[in-house]
Design brief:
Distance between the termini: 22 Å
Number of helices: 7
Largest sheet: 6 strands, antiparallel, barrel
Helix content: 10-25%
Number of strands: 23
Radius of gyration: 32 Å
Shape: flat
Strand order of the largest sheet: 3-4-5-10-7-6
Structural class: alpha+beta
Mean pLDDT: 80
Strand content: 35-45%
């Protein structure tokens, strides 16, 4: 564990040295997206059949009701009380409808059990309509379920790999309805930045206007860029988007330190600075061992068995000295100063929280 922590600190140091230079530019398509061009969520309720006795049990009444309803639509009338099967499972089917998807295109669907079925392996999803938030059917799904795992067991033990109650039907949904859009007839485009920032928006506008040699772009706000489509691209915006998406822009981000106490992960942004501060960090470890001493009498004697506890307490505290961390001018200097303390990533979490409380951390501290 100590070696892993040392490697992680070294990795932070190497990354910090690499950040001394100018950050690499990113393509516009990687830091922004066209406003209104997005995924749409689809959901449906269906049945998975053909399971090897691993389906829903008798207590899952809605599965029996759904099976009886499906059989009735196929011309088979059966009483729900007479249905006693274990090879059927009720599932929720979800999918993402990509932008500009056309009728006949196929998409993957995710199948998740909602009853007490313990394995969907080998099952087949029956025809399931997938609806959008507006209640309209946009796709229908059907096909074999691939779980990517398995479950097996007996009376005494059970072995399970991954999550066999969740599976995927590859290319299992066919799109039946398209999402309307006025993309071709519009006279302007709106780009939404993934991370709204005043400096980034200004740089995007400058790069676009330089590319077209005319003021076609302007920033409505720190997160939205409006582009007036030039006359030569009217009705033919795909070449315009192709040229815009490859433009390189250097994004600007807020100074932020993100820490994860569960995993001991510390990530620092490029703009993080630390004011001059003195730090002393030491660990106090207390180890308590409990042993039971048992003294038994000799055979055929009238003595009694004596049980006495034996407690050992060991206290150890690191003798760390006070270290002055100078004002950091770059992320590399900050990492180099913190490495001088010789602490682990989990210690860095406590140190950053203390530095923030002292007002010496010139960045936002976010705990996830």
């Amino acid at each position: 564990m100590k070696r892993i922590c040392t490697i992680m600190i070294g990795l932070l140091f190497v990354i910090g040295l690499g950040w001394h230079g100018v950050a690499d530019a990113a393509r516009l398509k990687d830091i922004a997206e066209i406003n209104g061009v997005r995924m749409n969520q689809l959901v449906g309720y269906g049945l998975v059949v053909g399971l090897d006795g691993s389906g829903d049990g008798k207590k899952t009444t809605f599965t029996v009701q759904s099976l009886a309803s499906m059989l009735e639509k196929m011309g088979v009338t059966v009483d729900q009380k007479d249905i006693k099967v274990k090879n059927v499972a009720a599932v929720m089917v979800t999918a993402k409808l990509p932008p500009f998807a056309k009728r006949g295109n196929r998409i993957d669907v995710l199948v998740s059990s909602i009853g007490d079925a313990n394995n969907l392996q080998g099952g087949t999803l029956m025809l399931t309509p997938l609806k959008g938030i507006d209640g309209k059917i946009y796709a229908v799904a059907q096909g074999p379920v691939n779980t990517g795992g398995f479950g097996a067991g007996g009376t005494g033990s059970t072995v399970v790999k991954n999550f066999p109650t969740v599976g995927r039907v590859l290319s299992g949904a066919i799109i039946e309805r398209e999402v309307p859009n006025d993309f071709k007839d519009s006279d302007r485009l709106l780009f939404s930045l993934h991370n709204p920032d005043v400096n980034t928006a200004a740089r995007v506008v400058e790069v676009i206007n330089t590319q077209f040699a005319e003021p076609v772009a302007r920033a409505e706000d720190p997160g939205t860029i409006e582009i007036t489509i030039p006359d030569r691209y009217m009705g033919n915006t795909i070449p315009l988007l192709a040229s815009l998406s490859t433009l390189e822009v250097q994004p600007d981000n807020d100074a932020k330190v993100v820490i994860n106490e569960r995993t001991g992960t510390v990530v620092m942004g490029e703009q993080v600075r630390i004011s001059t501060i003195a730090i002393a960090h030491g660990n106090l470890s207390i180890v308590v061992k409990e042993n039971i001493d048992v003294s038994q009498p000799l055979p055929f004697s009238d003595g009694r068995t004596v049980v006495s506890p034996n407690t050992q307490v060991n206290v150890q505290e690191d003798n760390n000295k006070l270290v002055v961390v100078p004002n950091g001018v770059s992320i590399g200097d900050v990492v180099n100063a913190l490495n001088a303390l010789g602490v682990s990533p989990r210690d860095l979490i406590a140190i950053f929280q203390a530095i923030k409380a002292a007002g010496a951390l010139q960045a936002d501290l976010e705990v996830i």
